[in-house]
TrEMBL record:
It comes from Bradyrhizobium canariense. The keyword Transmembrane applies. It comes from the Bacteria. Keywords: Membrane, Transmembrane, Transmembrane helix. The chain crosses the membrane at residues 6-29, 41-63, 75-93, 100-121, 133-157. This is Uncharacterized protein.
Length: 166
């Protein structure tokens, strides 16, 4: 196990994943799953529009000065791209652009891979204590985001979803 392994942090993240999944299955999916495809995707993308918060990893004092600048930069810029793609997805879905669904696919694949990459880098390279005030991003916000990415993939892959109300 990497030297940065921290059981309380891992349990916190695992708890956030479990709780996020239970809440999504119990409360979010019944509502979102019943919505027209474009509306459901737009709502889920809106949640990701706040991913600019990852830029805070590059703010002096928000995280430890010992946090790798390369890690902070990759996380911050990756999240900013994801937030931008989420906003573009929302616009494309709202205005019914013909390329709206491919844009949503791009946003969702990018966003998912970006979060998984950040976790991989964080677990392999970083001590979670170096995240400072940012500890709540990987411990709470990222599990919520990943679960919502699963919901987006579910809607995108659902049979007959192209025939739902526009």
């Amino acid at each position: 196990m990497p030297s940065s392994f921290n059981l309380p942090f891992v349990l916190s993240v695992a708890g956030a994943f479990l709780t996020s999944a239970v809440v999504a299955i119990t409360y979010v999916w019944p509502a979102v799953g019943a919505m027209p495809r474009h509306d459901a995707l737009r709502l889920l993308a809106a949640f990701h529009a706040f991913r600019f918060l990852g830029m805070n990893f590059m703010v002096a004092g928000f995280v430890s000065s010992e946090l790798s600048p390369d890690f902070a930069s990759e996380v911050g810029w990756g999240d900013l791209v994801a937030a931008t793609l989420a906003l573009i997805s929302m616009a494309a879905l709202s205005w019914r652009w013909s390329i709206a669904i491919p844009i949503v696919w791009t946003f969702n694949v990018w966003g998912t891979l970006d979060l998984l990459n950040a976790y991989y880098m964080g677990v392999r390279i970083q001590n979670p204590g170096l995240f400072g005030a940012g500890i709540y991003i990987p411990a709470l916000y990222v599990p919520l985001l990943l679960v919502s990415h699963v919901l987006v993939f579910t809607i995108l892959l659902r049979p007959g979803s192209d025939k739902q109300a526009a």
